[in-house]
UniProtKB/TrEMBL annotation:
The chain crosses the membrane at residues 113-135, 141-158, 188-207, 219-235, 247-271, 277-295, 348-368, 380-402. Residues 1-57 are annotated as: Disordered. It comes from Pycnococcus provasolii. It is a multi-pass membrane protein. It comes from the Eukaryota. One of its GO terms (molecular function) is transferase activity, transferring alkyl or aryl (other than methyl) groups. Gene3D superfamilies: UbiA prenyltransferase. It is found in: Membrane. GO terms for biological process: chlorophyll biosynthetic process. This is Chlorophyll synthase.
Length: 403
């Protein structure tokens, strides 16, 4: 019967379809169980835990300790910043922040950081005095210290204060936070400081001559010479720094090297007894100091160019001025080394040549191969000045032994 056959096929096909579906479900469930148990599958998420009261107390303690440590770290950082600010103000270096404390303003005007260069000249003079200077004698050390006070705080402070006053327009561009252009100290106070420091320096020179007991006024003569050079450097109508960077740089070199060197020797030997060879060496190193002063002019080249000052960076550009600085610094030292070698002090000559070679390396890295030499001026000064000073002292010691 066709109807019966159709009914049979219907009743037989439905269970087969249902069985197929059950098999698909079973296979999918088995594949899911296999995939979940496979090692490549990610682990199930961890079961969240509920923090207890003790855990919350511990986390609060840790957070409190972290806050305390962070506060202490910030306090130390602020203390370091305050210390740096104070030292910048006391030494008179660039970028020193403003202050309302009068004695700090007055000290900042004298730029105490420049006193160290004067001190190197004083020490060189003691070394070049030979047997006339005995470091183990207290009176000799006291005289040397007195010379440093005369050269540094008195005459050096006078020079720097006067230069700051007549450079106030330049500093208004280059260093507007300096005491004078910022208006922290007025012109009358500056003039009083200039006069007091000059008188103190001249009186100290007279006292030093009386202490020496040589019957000469060597220290007073050198102090007056330094005051005249400083005035010609800063004040119209001469104002050497406006005329020519070579002349003004040489004036600085003589003031920082030769004059304190000679003043120190005047205490122990007198100027009449200074050998010509020693005088020549001190002058040659003053020329070398001219090269170093060029690097110091990089920071003020913008204001110098604006106001027409003829510093070497303005005259030749920073890159050529850097080359000039290197040559003028190195060649005088090599010349002194050759002179000492000829005089029989080859050990001193070798030491100076080694110092110059190290300076050449620094010049290549920090001045000659950089796009902007002014970016490395402070780093170069901090690393090359000790080497230049070492050469100066080696030469002075050799002069004291030879002459």
């Amino acid at each position: 019967d066709p109807c019966r056959r159709r009914r049979r096929t219907t009743t037989t096909t439905v269970p087969c379809a249902a069985a197929g579906k059950n098999q698909e479900k079973a296979s999918s469930s088995s594949s899911q169980s296999e995939s979940s148990s496979s090692p490549d599958s990610p682990p199930p998420p961890p079961t969240p835990t509920i923090a207890t009261h003790d855990d919350l107390d511990v986390s609060e303690d840790v957070r409190h300790e972290r806050l305390v440590m962070e506060s202490e770290r910030q306090h130390l950082h602020d203390a370091d910043e305050a210390t740096n600010v104070a030292w910048k103000q006391l030494l008179g270096v660039k970028d020193a922040p403003r202050t309302v404390v009068k004695w700090r303003l007055r000290l900042q005007l004298t730029k105490p950081i420049t006193w160290f260069s004067l001190c190197t000249g004083v020490i060189a003079g003691c070394m070049a005095s030979g047997n006339a200077f005995h470091a183990d004698e207290g009176e000799n050390l006291a005289r040397a210290l007195f010379v440093f006070v005369l050269a540094g705080p008195c005459m050096g402070g006078f020079t720097q204060t006067m230069n700051d006053w007549f450079d106030r327009e330049v500093d208004a561009i280059n260093e507007p936070d300096r005491p004078i252009p910022s208006g922290q100290i007025d012109g009358f106070e500056v003039m009083v400081q200039i006069g007091v420091l000059l008188v103190a320096g001249l009186l100290s020179a007279v006292a030093l001559d009386a202490w020496n007991g040589l019957g000469h006024h060597d220290a007073l003569f050198l102090a007056l010479t330094g005051a005249a050079i400083s005035t010609a450097y800063s004040v119209e109508p001469l104002r050497l720094k406006e005329r020519n960077g070579w002349i003004s740089g040489l004036a600085l070199g003589i003031s920082y090297i030769m004059l304190p060197w000679m003043c120190s020797m005047a205490c122990f030997r007198g100027l009449d007894d200074v050998p010509l060879e020693t005088l020549a060496v001190s002058f040659v190193f003053s020329v070398g100091a001219l090269g170093i002063s060029v690097v110091n002019d990089f920071k003020s080249s913008t204001g110098d160019r604006h106001l027409g000052l003829k510093s070497l960076p303005v005259m030749y550009g920073d890159k050529d001025a850097a080359r000039i600085s290197a040559l003028v610094t190195d060649l005088p030292q090599l010349g002194v080394a050759a002179m000492l070698a000829q005089a029989g002090r080859r050990d001193a000559a070798i030491a100076i040549v080694c110092s110059v070679l190290l300076q050449v390396v620094l010049q290549q890295r920090l001045l000659l191969t950089t796009e902007n030499p002014s970016d490395n001026d402070l780093k170069y000064m901090a690393t090359s000045m000790p080497l230049f000073t070492g050469s100066l002292w080696v030469a002075a010691s050799a002069c004291g032994a030879l002459f």
